[in-house]
Amino acid sequence: MFEAVVTLCLSLADDLCRDVLLPGYEAPSAAACSEKLADTAPDIARFDGLTAKGDATCLPAGAALEVNEVAPGLFVHAGVVQEPDAANGGDVANLGFVISSTGVAVIDTGSTRAVGEGLWRAIRARTDLPVTHVILTHMHPDHVLGVSVFADAGAEVVGHEALPRALADRRENYLESLERLVGAGSFIGTDTRAVTLPVTGTVPLDLGDRVLELTAWPPAHTGTDLTVLDRDSGVMFAGDLVFDRHTPALDGSLLGWQGVMARLTDLDLTGIVPGHGAARLDWPEGAAPMVRYLDTLARDTRAAISAGQRLGDAIQVIAQGERDAWELFDAYNPRNATVAFTELEWE
């Protein structure tokens, strides 16, 4: 398989360049790929602020992300449980896609366009059907910053009704922080894209022979959480409403998150795809560590507030009993304790 790429650089005088995938030109031969390029010239102008080093060309397809088929037609890539850095290239979140008879729906896209390109190649290795929708489960950059490759291919960008404002407010900070973490060269071509299909409440997304049920939740992990239930298989993409191994990250409401988890565990699901960790968890037993952590966080925070502890002292003890159950605990638990303390001190 061959694909079209263009070499983009930060500037003509800069040696920081990357071959950026141009979706939609895939073909079994270089000649066929080149014919597609000749028929429809790619829009390089969309890569604002970057310089093209030569024209688009056709090369053998690059590396695809590894995916597991966790249910018929439902594929998941499990990112590493690490902080984004140059070594892992920002491939730290679980991503997926659903193949129907008429097209493909992508769920989350990774920390960079390069990660999104790897997911695009994984899709193209399995089907040549169009990618019709890219669904973003929440605003965090490790789930949304690979979106451009799919949006550039014509996919509708789907998200919680609050996602457009949240991304607009945080875009510059997200781009700056992720570029610093993974490296400027690896980050080339990465940007957000506008949400074209905002979701309120619960709505069906008809993909022809299968339907995805999209639910926008009240503030919990964040204020933009969206789940995707594949009605055919009974498997739900939970985004970061559910963590596995990776310490949960509270960026919304602790009480809201506990309430959402209670509702999720009541659902009749065959399995769930967490935002980090395993590709698929059994349900509801897969919820037990998350529920326990949130309950411990709330209980210990209330105890610290009741004892009159200052925030700086409280975060040293809140939820410390959970330390051995989670990875990246020291990076995330102090933040969670701070958010929880700030919320619960006003109960």
Automatic annotation (TrEMBL):
InterPro entries listed in its UniProt record: Metallo-B-lactamas, NDM-1-like, RibonucZ/Hydroxyglut_hydro, SoxH-rel_PQQ_2
Domain Metallo-beta-lactamase: 92-276
UniProt cross-references to Gene3D superfamilies, sorted A to Z: Ribonuclease Z/Hydroxyacylglutathione hydrolase-like
SMART domains assigned: Lactamase_B
Family: Belongs to the metallo-beta-lactamase superfamily. Class-B beta-lactamase family.
Name of the protein described by the UniProt record: Quinoprotein relay system zinc metallohydrolase 2
Species per Swiss-Prot/TrEMBL record: Litorisediminicola beolgyonensis
